Batch of 3 targets.
Target 1
Amino acid sequence: MTESSIRPPVAARRPHTRSHHGDVFEDSYEWLRAKDDAEVVAHLEAENAYTDSRTAHLAPLREQLFEEVRSRVLETDLSVPVRRGAWWFYGRTEEGAHYGIQCRTAATGDDWTPPVLEPGVPVPGEEVLLDGNVEAEGHEFFSLGAFDASDDGTRLLWSVDLEGSELYTVHVRDLVSGERLPDVIPSTGQAFFTPDGESIVYTTRDEAWRPDTLWLHRLGTPVQDDVRLFHEPDERFWMGAGITRSRRYLVIGLGSKVTSEEWLLDLADPKAEPRVVWPRRDGVEYSVDHAVVDGEDRLLILHNEDALDFELVSVPAAEPLGARRVLLPHSPERRIIDVDCFRDFATVEYRREGLVRAGLMDLASGAVDEIGFDEPLFDAYFAGNPEWHSPFLRMTFTSFVTPPQVLDLEVATGTKHLRKQTPVLGGYDPQEYAQRRVWATADDGAQVPISLVWKRSFGEPGDGVRPVHLYGYGSYEHSIDPGFSMMRLSMLDRGVVFAVAHVRGGGEMGRHWYEQGKELSKRNTFTDFIACARHLVDAGITTPARLVAEGGSAGGLLMGAVANLAPDLFAGILAGVPFVDALTSILDPSLPLTVVEWDEWGDPLHDAEVYAYMKTYTPYENIRDDVRYPRILAMTSLNDTRVLYVEPAKWVAALRHAGAQDVMMKCEMSAGHGGVSGRYNAWRERAFELAWMLDVLGLAGD
């Protein structure tokens, strides 16, 4: 049987109508939503069988790609230790093992220089805290959620998800005796110890999968006796919690897409009750951290009240509504992202000219000393700094061509100490690769940045037609920052140019960039991506026949939209866990995450204008029978709670009914939104996707 003679599954069309605001839509594939129905499961399995058959010829290439990434990765490796209290905590991996192993070793006195750990060399005094491979035994899926040691180092908590549902079960171990404690807390989100190590703070979700309640569990007591610390009834708001680095306050954060509110519980006062910092006001977002300035307890509040790109102020901790001292004034040239307080200074991360910048800020004056890097495109951020006071600050630096570097910034001198760079086996030379940014002109004149990465030996982009892999996202103010990828090297080494379209709806160019790509301006996201693709064609970098597009989740909606708007511009489209039936989902408040999404997309259930606007772009409703679609591959997971499997299942069925000739879907039957678990499984899944893209680009034989 030839590949062309293999017939795809045909989903039955069954009467089902959806009616809102006087509009009636015939949704013939809605029956596929019945996840536990044997006929639905059989259809998904038939889709997988069809995809397996259609891609069988790519099996050798998939194996080659898998072995390529495996040959580059140092499979037995260790992370740079992070000091917390009297211990150095680190993780390690072992060749052939899917999951990481979490360990610690004792620290000595005031020595803050992390011990140098060598792969394969025993670590003196190593204590294995948790072996993910042992925890995962007997399970098809495993995800480690919370992982926290008590401040005194005597207890450990961790949580696991064995289904991909993002509901985690908390376990506790006594690190002195090595015994597991009887405390087991099911169906949690966040979880962490109180500073005294005697209790666990954790969140739970409502029926719509929204974290809405904060609990306190005292070790050794029944879970049913846990104390409810806080509950958020508004379905638009998610809850999160954490303890300030000073260990003074428990911070309870509540946030919708456009509004936030934070409450503080003073851990120094056993009789204290949570108190609000600033009462919520629609459209005002803020976050809080605790600082001590000249002996006074202060709160640093990062907010957007009359400050589109945010402003940082300092207020008395005892009177948060009192006089504000502006530390970082609002500037349209700088989108302030994050502020973290330490004993003697704060770290600041902000976005300028499309890139993240990082610096140290004086707590009293707000003066910032920016940390410089010498690459044109890069990402740099602080991570792994749990201590209130330390002579070093841990940072990560990377770019499209530079493997991640772990740096310790010496606070007193500004000196950067390289502690580790992710090794790339096989002789990787970053000078053989290049990166730069070009700009496309959108339909309304906006200048849209495009990041390009390529291997120099194939020539400059534009010196001849090249195969191009164009990636996009464009929602939730999420930015696609420069980052290194082991698997991407397999594409670059075959002559593919990797491109990122930094379209509106993302946050690369500031808050206005996000505002112009959401709600009733959402179509800008799609037309920006098309403008980027056309720029690459018009600049002579590629042609439609050598251009493949990729996006996942909300980026999958982007893929579905551009497939309808400009099907002749792409040879292939890879849509990962794609949000392609967005209108159906956003209309149903009983579905997970729907109500909280109304601030991002609009509320089509109650607003006829929003309904009509969304219906002009949602991929499922706008499938066309008058065009030739490019090759399409949709990737999804049965247990995904964020974008349900039914969305791509319906989309693929409708595309085929409209005459699309080469459409496939692969559904993982035991995974969630993030796909399969285990690093080797993840490499194989990505190898599957890359092999398909290389086939689309005519490079499967290379």
Note: The longest helix spans residues 679-696.
Target 2
Amino acid sequence: MQTGNLPKGVPAPSETLGYQIIRWAQKYVVTPDGDRAGEPWQFTQEQLRFVLWFYAINPDGTWKYAAGTLRRAKGWGKTPLLAALAVTEFLGPARFSHFDAFGLPVGKRVPLPVVQIGATALDQTEQTMEFIRGLLSESPAEKEFGLEITKSTVQFKSGKPGSIKPKATAGRTAEGNRPTFVLMDEVHHWVGSNGGPDFYQTLKRNIEKTTKAGSRWVTTTNAYNPNEDSVAQQIHESDMVTQGFWLYDCLEGSIELESIRDEEKVAAALREAYGDAHWADIEGLTKTILYDRTTPDSTYCRFFFNQIAESSDGWMSKAEWDACEADPADDPIKPGEQIAVGFDGSVRGDGTALVGIRLRDAKLFTLGQWLRPEHARDDWEVDVLSVEATVKRAFETYCVEWMYADPPWWQENIGRWAVEWGDDYVFEFWTNKPTRMVQAVERFRTAVLVGDISHCGETELTRHVLNAVVKEVPQGDLIVKDSPRSKRKIDLAVAGVLALEARADAIADGRLQIKRRRVVGF
């Protein structure tokens, strides 16, 4: 299903520079990999249509669209297409010059081309820069234009001004640049927590300095999560899109969430979403969606069907969590047993939680919780002495083999616990470091789905697990509250994730069944 504001059909040759740009790209750049590696670059029909409309012009030669966004399914070919446009903006006839005797527009090169590949972190630009290098290496363009191609820059060997470079500096330090073209990739990941919206505004302001000379920006995105207020969402909801000033090209797969287990409907929706991207493995993706239950359905909707979707079913469904519930009276956790512990601490805004997990069978249980009351005074704080006493009681009652504790606000306390109970038993675990936390969250969710973890149906722990929603970051999935100021807390869920991670590391260290700690009273 075609959505967005991309017009039907294609513009006439007199209404776009796109035809000249397509011919130029197919002459000067090469296919970087695959069976056709080294052969002239070829666009698909859908890519051609985007190029023709993106370079559409008004009768006076100005751009019809001041900017553009390409929202397509994961793996459709967004990055390769925009990499080709970045090369064209750097070397090709990407600005209007005049109309020829037949009334056809003629393009010219940008006099001082400054092409920037924008991202909130440099490593996010690597894929695009790698593709640009592939398009140019051993291509006619490399020889004819005398290019110096490095890992991070494409420029002229002669020293002539102009370059293609990644740009990943947010805030005021990025002000003052005068790019002629900016490619912003995967802007569904550009959110407040990584400075994405501010960086987007900075890049946009820089482009606007030279819009009269034809400078523009373009973004790529998958369908966004409307809970995150990403740059992708801000662009889609902008009046500039609804009024037709910015081009917005989108192709969605038509399927309802309740049909996501219907093989025929899933395959049909995938074919619709991927269009003429003949390389897409529709059969493989269909099997993944039907049988891989480690990924939320909302994620499939966004990335593969290209549908805007909230994580409304949360990180964990009630049915999934309930399936792991064990009878509290069946094999209860007893004093002296080996456990691992997770600690998620706060002082005022959020709660503080201490969760244990038995080493031999991964049964979760709550050791302590200090949650802000609904009508608490503004000066309410967590009872630190109570937390200290509970941690002490946990170490004295059980054989704690490994403890992971999130340091913010509690670093001094954690250091003291490590001194008191042993620095080979108490460890910091920074939940705000996404790479490590993504792995821990994935371990917990997988354990639930395959039944490798259990719980006793504790009301508050269950509530926190079901309150958690998924937040996609470049490294994978994190869990967060449904909004920053939400009263739906998730502290016990985070502590549970840390507890399971602590258990995994304790077992990997060989501590299961080898009680290295003397438990007080046992």
Note: The chain has 17 helices and 18 strands.
Target 3
Amino acid sequence: MPSGVISDTEKLLHTARSVYVGDRDALALVDQLEARLHEPLRLAIAGMVKAGKSTLLNAMLGERIAATDTAECTRVVTWYRYSPTPRLTMHLRDGTTARMPVRREGGLLAFDLGGRTAEDIEWIDVGWPLEGLASLILIDTPGIASLSTDTSARTARFLIPEDEPSAADAVVYLMRHLHGSDVRFLQAFRDTAAGAGASVCALAVLSRSDEVGSGRIDSLLSARRVALRYERDGDLGALALGVVPVAGLLAEGARTLRESEFIALRELAGLERRERESLLVSADRFIRESPVTGLSVSVREGLLSRFGIFGVRLATAVIRGGVSTSSELSDALVQQSGLIELQDAVQRHFRPRADVLKARSVVLQLQALVRRAPKPGCEEVLAGIERFTASAHTLRELALLAEARAHGLPLPAPQAQEAERILGAAGVTASARLGLPDDASAEEISRRVHEQIDHWRRLSADPTADRGGRDVISAVLRSLAEVASQSGGARTLRPATHIDPSRRPGDPLGQDAAEQGEEHEGRLRRKKRLKWFPLGAQRHPLG
């Protein structure tokens, strides 16, 4: 059963179809938009060259299927979506398609372009039988700020086109350091994807975070401090919903750990302390001929390639701490890598809002169509677009959460913290918004939500509150009204005092609460050992 926002958008597409009857190109676009509305959320992985995008994508999938070297295919936008059987398809610049053979080389999926160059290919479509891809399309993009202007242009054309909305619904943006190019890209994505800054649909990742501390065991602690500082940066904070430090190579190695690698790491952990520390003092020393270990140079080179010197050091420390099996080591390394925090953030901010984000992308494409090719009757389509914009409270929530990170909300500290939680900072389930346990009863939720509504209505009537504070309070009341509706305890709310709901499209007061009701999955609990949501590791279908 489609949610309310999906049903409303379907009706809008039906209206557009009747307006553009006889226009083959416009009707083809409407068909594409209808298909997009019913496909999974599109999450792009973007960042500068060598930021570790493909490595992180492999870690998220739990499969080594994204190319991570400098091969020609890394210069092409590549989609990863669910398919019952593996399939690889090239979409060429001339409008034709070509199937690619599916095979492995050295444990990695091989991309055979058949002698073609990146300039010949528009994008590559990878269908793969991973359960997690049934609910999330992942899109790997070439690096921005590349020495090859054509390579950078491919990503810009896909994610931040000049005259139409982005092809992605949300983005995970990787950066090794905060650079002006990072801020400019996120500004462009916000304006293209969300419609002139009405929302923020990006998460930032401090990638290769083990390098922040030069590969020391405590490197990720240093990286978390840097990430927190970046979150509080006014420019970046207003463009991303958070900054998560992730050691991508460690995460990929951990999620695809082989038994032979565990045995080798266990042997290193069993060395005498002086010998072990001497061997692990640097990457160069680790791969030299050495009498202190029976592991060959080629085996050690393989470990270094798969885990990095930080990962090898950490793995040996974890094994010495009592880990005794490869699965236990895999779990422990993933916990340390930062990958769970990233998946938690995707789960918290994007997955429950997937219907609204997809509908927004469709509506913006329709808006571009009407602007590009107006027809008699387009007024009805524009009216539907205006209704969606005025009612998309979810987008307003995302914008306020980004503003809270960057500058703080214009409320006293205790109220600001409470407002962030109600707006969905900790998750969009009723219990998360209300600060209740996950297993709170319906009675507890109903009682708390009405207490909160009464509390925030009293705040809205405060004549000393400034306009910025009243705007936030209005949004909080709208979120609480949706919680009340979803919990079956809705009651009529009259407009908050002094609030002008027409001040801008991103500040709505009337939205169908069903837009978030279907995907309220349980939040990832960090107290549990590696409780993955759908993107779980699975065996490669080719063995």
Note: The chain has a mean pLDDT of 83.
